[in-house]
Amino acid sequence: MVFTNLTQDHLDYHGTLEAYYEAKADWFMTRSLDRLGKKPTAVINVDDAHGADLAEALDGKMPVLRFGFGLHTDFRANNFRQNTRGMEFELSAKGKSFLVRAPLIGRFNAYNLLAALAAASACKISPREAIATLAEAPQVPGRMENVGNAGGATVFVDYAHTPDALENACRTLKELNPRRLITVFGCGGDRDKAKRPLMAAAVARNSDACVITSDNPRSEDPEDIIRQVESGMGGMGFRSFVDRDEAIQYAINNALSGDIILIAGKGHETTQQFATQTIKFDDRIHARDALRVRAKTIADSR
Q: Within 10 Å of residue 83's Cβ, how many Cβ atoms?
């Protein structure tokens, strides 16, 4: 059983963050009270404040493995480094130190790797054996996925669709020291409307250029959603396109060498949902198409 973090997601269902936390915590507590079955191990990110509270509440009730970047963890990451091709960090676990390398980027992925390594340990798999498999791990579809480079501009597609997730995604890519970070994003329809300006503010704080577009409008008017997003942009300049493909093309066509483009919100999804229809739409395919056009335009101009 793994607790990774708690962010502003699914609040249209839970109502508040505290109610969301209670729902997650109840899942662990129910298993900890099972006196007939074998109790599982709780693997918990204690860098997250709610995770730290949960670990403390479970102590003495079931086995707990803590992970994170901070002290007082059973699986701790040190000396984290990354580039556009992947990451590495030192893992401190079971009184030993191990070098972890993986073709993934982002601290959130480092947390995911720590969770996986701790969970593997709970399943009696040694850290050394688990780490050996990570060097060849594939990119996770739509999760900070590098989909290509053309003319010195690199494109990542990520599922980030909450204020916290967008902030983390943007900060992750800014750590790679791009010339500029250009973020393409939108907000889904028929979901928590309160987070729309918050998502815009997160992007505006952490990007150098922003392109607002449609996500999955569902039954809502895409232009109404975009206007609500725009209200959170503050004084930052931006461009808005209802058509998501047009937004992706604009961002890639106008990128400079050394720029990174983040296309956020839909990640691995292969459709786009409207009020009257669902169409095929994959950010990765549209981004690769735009990158091919960019590469050809650059080649033809030489």
A: 11
